[in-house]
Specification:
Length: 116
């Protein structure tokens, strides 16, 4: 009976460890590329591997949060910043569907492999 309990405990603990990443979307009102991302990518984000690995947090570029250490000044919106433990480990500036998904996936893969 104990091995089953141990296996169940480990199975429940594993997703918590995978949730150490967050994708911070820096946006602003009137940004047409933010609106395009909302229409094209946002609905599917939570259903993708990258979306499950790095849940989305949205922030306005004019009111950046104090609990994230950005590596450099944010200029463009949208900018997608991958964060672990409050520190930026990578970013994708802008939104072009041809490049966005592969770049976001690479950030998450590198972070999981220890390169980020």
């Amino acid at each position: 009976m104990r091995p089953i309990l141990l296996a169940a405990t480990l199975a429940l603990a594993a997703p918590a460890a995978a949730q150490d990443l967050t994708m911070v979307m820096v946006e602003q009102a009137g940004c047409i590329y933010c609106q395009r991302w909302d229409a094209e990518a946002a609905p599917g984000w939570p259903n993708t591997e990258v979306g499950r690995a790095a849940p989305l947090r949205r922030v306005d570029i004019t009111a950046l949060p104090d609990d994230v250490a950005f590596a450099s000044t944010l200029v463009f919106t949208p900018t997608f910043v991958l964060v672990r433990d409050g520190a930026e480990i990578g970013r994708v500036e802008g939104y072009d569907p041809q490049f966005f998904w592969p770049m976001a996936e690479r950030l998450v893969t590198d972070a999981r492999d220890g390169d980020g």
